[in-house]
Here is the input.
Amino acid sequence: MKHLKKHSIKQEIALIFITVMAGTIILCWVINNSFLEKFYIQNKKNAIKDAYYRMNEVLANGDITSEEYDLELRKTCDMYNIGLLVIDAASNTVKSNTRDADKLMRRLYDNFFKPGSDMNYLDVGNNYYLANVMDKSTYTEYLEMWGVLDNGNLFLIRSPIESIRDSVKLSNQFLAYVGFIATVISAALIWFVTTRITRPIMELKNISEQMTKLNFETKYESRGQNEIDLLGRHINELSSTLERTISELKTANNELQRDIEKKEQIDEMRKEFLSNVSHELKTPLALIQGYAEGLVEGINDDDIESRNFYCEVIIDEAGKMNTMVKKLLDLNQLEFGKDVVTMERFDITALIRNFIASAEILISQNEVKVRLEEPEPIYVWADEFKTEEIIRNFFSNAMNHVSGDRIIEIKYQLIEQESANKVRIRVFNTGEPIPEESLAHIWEKFYKVDKARTREYGGSGVGLSIVKAIMESMNQRYGVINYTNGVEFWFELETK
Here is the structure.
């Protein structure tokens, strides 16, 4: 499968905004460079024509030499860099805003009587001409307007085009500098803003990645009421729903597998159960019957010590039978599928830690050293109550067989597989190894490696069978390993 290149949404948003902004600035620069000069020239043409029309208007309504008009004319000419000359029929200067009136007069006469062949006319009216001309004396390009006013006076209005080009050039340079600086500053601001905007999106991405790994512990922390926060709350709800659904599916899957397997085993298990129960109860029943008959027939009422001993044996054997019957009933429930396995997610390290704490008195009485590994929390999928029963049986078995240094160790081993990730819980006790010929039988009901020692601590040979039944009900692996200095029992649970 072809791998697609990953792109950060932050980078994409920032790149889009920066590109749009830079493109806008470049477009403005291109428009300025292409049309600003033409715009300035057109504006200057309009200003020159307005000056002409205003002069005719003043002539019609009053004196062109009035102070009010002088002020108005000066403002217009200064604003648009316009030179103006008005002369009468006797070549006397009527109005001028420049010290070089003689030069303008010569230009006026040349335009009337010696127009150049390269003159570019822009507008021609009844009484005026507007053209783009080159002053050969200074090699400067001008916009010039000349003609006759309504009162018969001659006029010349001109403005240099070079200043326009300089202004356009400076304007474009300024726009380029400002645009570059604005792009850099805006890019930094955009990156900062997009980082803030995309931070919750990246958080949601990380949460979704954890969800694909079936880790539902990470939750989105809402910061407001916008659409992203609403999406975060919905993802939290989805995470909880998925975790609950997976739990239900795992429980249903286990039940289905158990039903398929148990249907074929029920008849054989029933026969085996009856046979084993009858065999295991023979010995304690015989002892109880024998000592009870002894009490009736052979014990003198004055022999209190013997009578008490007989009674203690009967009570002890009855207690062992009661314990055995309870364990057999529990085992019967498991093997016949009557006990429902509820798959849930919990911290196995906390469960074991709490169990060891509850067994402190028993550990102290037996003078046993317990070494408990303390890792980070390890979450597993299993039936919590039955998992505790497994730990209780393994620990009880270790307590009954510990010797030598009298050490019990509980360790954890994480196992990564392609199909699933698991943790192996190991319970080790120092002492004698299990004989090799007995390893294959220790999980069978009522099997006892050392029958004399088993009777000494009241063992029934059912504890490991219960472990086997529980582990098979959860479809998980278990086992035992011999060492030169002891024995290790282990079982595995899924972490995902």
Observations:
- The first helix runs from residue 9 to 61.
- The first strand starts at residue 83 and ends at 87.
